[in-house]
Design a protein that fits this description.
This protein is an alpha+beta fold. Helices cover 25% and strands 16% of the residues. Strands 7, 13, 15, 18, 20 and 21 form a 6-stranded mixed β-sheet that branches. It has a 4-stranded antiparallel β-sheet with strand order 14-19-16-17. It has a 3-stranded mixed β-sheet with strand order 3-11-10, with helices on one face. The protein binds CU-O-CU linkage.
Length: 634
């Protein structure tokens, strides 16, 4: 069936085709009010779009007729679903291509960026040299800190109708991660999301780059670069002071009040115990030291141990096929319904996204228990983890951009210093492009400008005219924080023979660990990596989800496992995100973990390993048996 898939390329019929903007334009009348709490208006963009002069007409357009979605033709639902599934699986083999055609925001009354019709799109021109340096927020001098505040104040003062306003900038993130872009407007259930795949790192690099450009334009200072929250260094492991002053434009009331002055937990997903007050003078205390060490090990794991290849570090290919599993039901008419209302995108994020990045979002966002200011989302339901703790609203907190500046730096360090080479070779990735609004001065009568930027344009930050400060790069405190064993070498061996086999699907509930004994491990094949694959991870995206994976660890010690220990292989993490699941929907995820260092560090030599899954948050199901395979890359 897979070979039946095809992409039909036909010449575009109109020269005046434009792309959807990645920034709400000033054409929208019903823009957000009251700090963007209400839904933005979304103008349907209709069936237009161009991809380098060709219309990318996926086979599913033809299949749309087959399924009767648009044409109302009665076709056996099994046949239609199977055809669609096969077509999507084929596209997953090479990585799904993101095209303007597929990214049309056609909902109404939702925060879609409205039409960019009439706005000229220019191609991005690489800068070629790094003229600007991004520095740690906590080390800014007074003058630089004032500049940062002034620039954000000016951005916040722009009317929401201006695409460069803070409201509009925040809405870009919301539209791209809260289900308002669809692969195909006729398939309501296939939202496009900039998280959970290999799109994550480059899209966010582009997004904050244009945010930075607008800030620079607003203060007329060509040297300004977006400061980063240096949470990977002990002195930066708390919300920087500049964001805490109530009178500052960088302040946001929707943060977890208990965490404002606390040492950040880079492995955080839900509250456990009392936060440790952040105080560099406490550095001698064991609990403080332990927490700092755990944070440093988390970054070591994220960047080095788990980041052995682009797929493991940046995330797997974008593939919406995981979204298209038709729920099995005996009632055929119900099956059609399920396939249209519950089909979801998957989560195949890499360690860059899953680890410190996710933890900081949840750490800063309001906790579930603290529902002081729940804000209604576009779906009308309250979202109490606002702002940072819920991806749809995260861009409303000014700290988001400095947080992502450090996430971006982590990618930069991985690519330059850690030999990660930047990313993937696949043209589906390299040629993916997005358009963003550039700075323009409305008061001077300047017209809005859109810039098209491709992933290949942003692999090297020098092309974007910036780099990160060399000082911090010279002494990365996590570089030598290799995890240490929880079980001393020669300590209690596991006893696989007595353990009952795991029965799938497995249900993971916080605090109830699940053993998967005797997972076969193929013999080492040359330079290939030994990779543990956990597929069919089902979870509810409206709440956070997390489980840790430990190797050959006795059950009684497993709850202690974390990034600071050698037995830790990694975690599956999902930040609460889109509310587009309607009632009771689930997403499917996949976790790929390189085991080579873990196995070497714990001295595992057998032809099977015992995996222990330690659930930390959310209710999760694992539908498919675990496997270990030899892969050329990760
Ligand atoms: Cu788009 Cu940190 O999220």
């Amino acid at each position: 069936m897979a070979s039946a898939s095809a992409t039909l390329l036909v010449p575009a019929t109109s020269a005046a085709l434009t792309a959807p903007p990645a920034c709400p334009s000033n054409h929208s009348k019903k823009t957000a009010t009251a700090r963007g709490r209400r839904s933005l208006s979304c103008r349907a963009t209709g069936g237009r779009g161009a991809d380098e002069g060709l219309l990318w007409l996926p086979r599913r357009d033809v299949l749309a007729g087959l399924t009767g979605v648009t044409a109302g033709i009665a076709v056996h639902p099994d046949l239609a679903a199977a055809a669609l599934q096969a077509e999507l699986e084929e596209s997953c083999r090479r990585g799904e291509k993101v095209t303007d055609r597929l990214l049309e925001c056609t909902d109404s009354g939702l925060p879609c960026p409205p039409s960019s019709r009439g706005v000229q799109i220019v191609d991005f021109t690489p800068a070629g040299e790094a003229k600007r340096v991004r520095r740690p927020v906590h080390l800014l001098d007074k003058e630089y800190a004032e500049k940062y505040k002034e620039a954000v104040a000016r951005m916040k003062a722009l009317p929401g109708s201006n695409p460069c306003s803070f409201t509009s900038q925040a809405a870009i993130h919301e539209a791209y991660c809260d289900g308002h872009y669809r692969f195909d407007p006729t398939e309501k259930n296939r939202p496009f999301d900039v998280h959970f795949s290999w799109i994550f790192a480059p899209w966010h690099r582009m997004y904050i780059y244009f945010y930075e450009r607008i800030l620079r334009g607003l203060i007329g200072d060509d040297t300004f670069a977006l400061p980063y929250w240096n949470w990977d260094a002990p002195a930066g492991m708390a919300l920087p002071a500049i964001f805490k002053d109530r009178d500052s434009p960088l302040y946001d009331p929707n943060r977890n009040q208990a965490h404002l002055d606390a040492l950040v937990d880079l492995d955080f997903i839900n509250s456990r115990g009392k936060p440790i007050p952040f105080d560099k003078n406490l550095a001698a205390q064991p609990a403080y030291d332990e927490a700092v060490n755990k944070n440093l090990s988390t970054i070591y794991q994220q960047q080095i141990r788990s980041g052995k290849g682009a797929r493991c570090f940046l995330g797997d290919k974008l593939c919406s096929a995981t979204s298209l599993r038709v729920k099995e039901t005996n009632d055929r008419s119900k099956r059609r319904q399920d396939s249209s209302s519950k089909l979801k995108r998957g989560n195949t994020s890499g360690s860059l996204e899953r680890m410190a990045h996710s933890a900081v979002h949840v750490w800063i966002g309001r906790s579930k228990a603290d529902q002081g200011t729940c804000a209604a989302g576009h779906d009308g339901k309250p979202h109490c983890s606002n702002d940072m703790g819920f991806l749809g609203s995260a861009g409303r907190d000014p700290v988001f951009y400095s947080h992502h500046s450090n996430v971006d730096r982590m990618w930069h360090l991985w690519a330059t210093k850690l030999g990660g080479t930047g990313g993937f070779d696949d043209p589906e990735w390299l040629d993916t492009s997005f358009v963003f609004y550039d700075y323009f001065d409305e008061a001077k009568g300047e017209e809005p400008k859109l810039v098209r930027v491709r992933i290949r344009d942003v692999l090297d930050t020098r092309n974007l005219g910036y780099t990160y400060d060399a000082e911090s790069e010279q002494a990365l405190p996590w570089m030598n924080r290799k995890p240490t064993p929880l079980v001393p070498r020669g300590g209690s061996p596991s006893t696989p023979a007595t353990k009952p086999a795991a029965v799938f699907p497995l249900t993971l509930i916080p605090d109830q660990l699940v053993e998967v004994p005797s997972v076969p491990r193929p013999g080492k094949d040359g330079d290939k990596l030994q990779v543990l694959v956990i597929e069919g991870i089902e979870f509810d995206p409206t709440n956070g989800a997390k489980f840790d994976v430990a190797i050959n660890l006795p059950k009684d010690l497993a709850p202690k496992v974390g990034p600071q220990y050698s037995e830790y292989a990694g975690s599956f993490v999902s930040v609460a995100s889109s509310s587009d699941t309607g009632s009771g929907g689930t997403l499917e995820g996949k976790l790929t973990l390189v085991l080579d260092d873990v196995l070497a560090d714990i001295g595992a030599s057998g032809d099977t390993v015992d995996v222990v899954l330690v659930p930390r948050a959310g209710e999760i199901k694992i539908n498919l048996p675990l496997r270990i395979q030899n892969d050329d890359f990760c």
